[in-house]
Amino acid sequence: MDLEIAGKAALVTGASAGIGRAIAKALAAEGVKLAVVARRRALLESLEKELGAKLVIIEQDFMAEDAARRIADAALAGLGAVDILVNNAGGSRKFQLHTDEAQWQEAMTLNFTRQRQLADLLVDQMIARKWGRIVNITGKSEPEGINGAFSAKAAMHAWAKGLSREVGKHGITVNCIPPGRIISEQILRNYTPEYRQWQSEHEIPVGEYGQPEDIANLVCFLASPRARYITGAVIPVDGGLRKYQF
User: Fold this and answer.
1) If we measure between CA atoms, which residue out of 197, 94, 111 comes closest to residue 152?
2) Percentage, residues of the chain above pLDDT 70
3) HEC states along the chain?
């Protein structure tokens, strides 16, 4: 299937490894021009070398106060326009019963505020061209404990739904993808091989963890004109994970 996105321009955050890197590679394979963001410049440069294509490389800490403005300006300067925004940056923040406000603020900024700000900075130029795609990589909204990231992702779902209602008339769609158990640096760091095997056998109906490419394939579809009528949706990619609802 021709996704009809060749020649479009995309900004992908958190693109140095895992899901974000897979998304960047999949979009590049479709002929999309890319701006990629992460803190680890060397990994972005290795991605550029792997793809054999010129990328707009943006080395940026998401927590810097002016991060969203710097990223948006660099992407627009390098690409000329941003047709597709993939908000992938973020990270789990497991909290205790009593957690200080600074930690909550950090979790919300990293997992929601910067994404919202980036969309706000880029949406007007999408409106001017009557076309755009915003795809947010989010997370489950019903965690097993207190986690600042999951609270932020729930906010993302609500915000994205509202935004989709405002911009749909301009040919812009806004969707969220909560990953289930997808192999990533964080998963490999936090879960032992034994636990991953047990979970694959008992909690994931398809019987295995997903790969970053499983997310990337859906992102490419949602970024395409083929998905023109899909907006305001939360679409889990989780292998049918049974334990928690998303």
Assistant:
1) 111
2) 94
3) CCCCCCCCEEEEECCCCHHHHHHHHHHHHCCCEEEEEECCHHHHHHHHHHHCCCCEEEECCCCCCCHHHHHHHHHHHHHCCCCEEEECCCCCCECCCCCCHHHHHHHHHHHHHHHHHHHHHHHHHHHHHCCEEEEEECCCCCCCCCEHHHHHHHHHHHHHHHHHHHHHHHCEEEEEECECCECCHHHHHHCCHHHHHHHHHHCCCCCCCECHHHHHHHHHHHCCHHHCCCCCCECCECCCCCCCCC
Report if pTM > 0.90.
Answer: yes
Structure tokens at 158: 């609500």
**Nearest C-alpha neighbor of 174 from the set 216, 218, 233:** 233
pLDDT in tens, 171-184: 999 999 999 888 88
219 vs 178: CA distance, rounded Å: 11
Kindly give, in sequence order, each residue whose CB lies less than 8 Å from that of residue 147, ignoring residues fewer than 6 positions away: 92, 93, 94, 95
- The Cβ-side half-sphere exposure at 244, using a 13 Å CA radius, reads 17
